[in-house]
């Protein structure tokens, strides 16, 4: 599947963590997340060898396509190209959007971290980003020193930009609904998914937030 339509870029965006899903548990955990309704999976592993990352990403690509979900690779444009992933997520110090687009093609989903800065989001959208990620919105165990973003930023960005928005950072089923109401199209979650004893049930709680938002009021 290679689809970067707006419909594809909505819902729970589960991000892997090698500390929470080590070794052979990775595929088991991601499959549980997909069964719980995760719409996107981001493979994020800063520690594994090149060989292990290639094996993991290849297996995840197959699994995500079996579940009609998108697989996004964190940082590594070459790995995304090699396994024919659906796209790549880039931060402030990663490969440039232009070079990633040239390498991966027009159909690739390329997301950009813009932290708490609207001007970065405006520039990324103008350069052709497929989604913009803001955060952290709440205290984060993955990046405790990340800058603070506020829900009002989502509302402003939604009014100004025509690309889907991702909210990230300490998000739970209990605090996620206001972010969707403010303009988030996706909730990106690490510990709130893969740190839970029942991953599938945790994902279902997140997916219900989007279902509730879509009901007539």
Structure description:
2-[(2R,5Z)-2-carboxy-4-methylthiazol-5(2H)-ylidene]ethyl phosphate binds at residues 140-142, 170. InterPro entries: Aldolase_TIM, ThiamineP_synth_sf, ThiamineP_synth_TenI, TMP_synthase. It comes from Candidatus Thiodiazotropha taylori. It is a single chain. This protein has 217 residues and is of the alpha/beta class. The chain has a single domain (11-214), classed as Aldolase class I (TIM Barrel), CATH 3.20.20.70. Helix content is 41%, strand content 17%. The protein has an eight-stranded parallel barrel with strand order 1-2-3-4-5-6-7-8, surrounded by seven helices. Helix 1 (25-35) links the parallel strand 1 and strand 2. Helix 2 crosses helix 3. The termini are far apart.
Brief summary of the model shown:
This protein has 217 residues and is α/β, with parallel strands linked by helices. It has helices at residues 25-35, 50-66, 77-83, 97-104, 118-126, 151-160, 177-182, 191-194, 199-214, and strands at residues 11-15, 40-43, 70-74, 87-90, 109-115, 131-134, 165-168, 186-189.
CATH class: Alpha Beta
Question: Oligomeric state of the chains?
Answer: single chain
By CATH, the superfamily comes out as Aldolase class I
Strand content: 15-25%
Radius of gyration: 16 Å
- Main sheet specs: 8 strands, parallel, barrel
Beta-strand segment tally: 8
Summarize model confidence as the mean pLDDT.
93
* Annotation field: number of helices: 9
The outline comes out as globular
Q: Would you tell me which CATH topology applies?
A: TIM Barrel
Give the end-to-end Cα distance, rounded to a whole number of Å: 34 Å
Q: Structural class from helices and strands?
A: alpha/beta
Tell me roughly what share of residues is in helical segments: 40-55%
Function: Condenses 4-methyl-5-(beta-hydroxyethyl)thiazole monophosphate (THZ-P) and 2-methyl-4-amino-5-hydroxymethyl pyrimidine pyrophosphate (HMP-PP) to form thiamine monophosphate (TMP).
GO molecular function: magnesium ion binding; thiamine-phosphate diphosphorylase activity
InterPro entries: Aldolase_TIM, ThiamineP_synth_sf, ThiamineP_synth_TenI, TMP_synthase
Family: Belongs to the thiamine-phosphate synthase family.
């Amino acid at each position: 599947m290679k689809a970067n339509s707006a419909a594809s870029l909505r819902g729970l965006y589960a991000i892997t963590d090698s500390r929470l899903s080590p070794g052979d548990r990775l595929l088991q955990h991601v499959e549980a997340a997909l069964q719980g309704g995760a719409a996107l999976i981001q493979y994020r592993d800063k520690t594994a060898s090149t060989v292990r990352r290639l094996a993991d990403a290849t297996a995840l690509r197959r699994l995500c396509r079996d579940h009609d979900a998108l697989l996004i690779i964190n940082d590594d444009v070459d790995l995304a190209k090699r396994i024919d992933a659906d796209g790549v997520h880039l931060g402030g110090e990663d490969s440039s959007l232009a070079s990633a687009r040239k390498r991966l093609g027009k159909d690739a989903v390329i997301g950009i971290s813009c932290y708490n800065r609207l001007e970065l989001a405006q520039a990324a959208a103008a350069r052709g980003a497929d989604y913009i990620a803001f955060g952290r919105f709440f205290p984060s165990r993955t990046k405790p020193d990340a800058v603070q973003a506020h829900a009002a930023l989502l509302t402003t960005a939604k009014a100004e930009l025509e690309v889907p928005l991702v909210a990230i950072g300490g998000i739970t089923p209990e605090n996620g609904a206001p972010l969707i109401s403010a303009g988030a199209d996706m909730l990106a979650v690490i510990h709130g998914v893969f740190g839970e004893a029942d991953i599938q049930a945790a994902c279902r709680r997140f997916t219900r937030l989007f279902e509730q938002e879509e009901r007539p009021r």
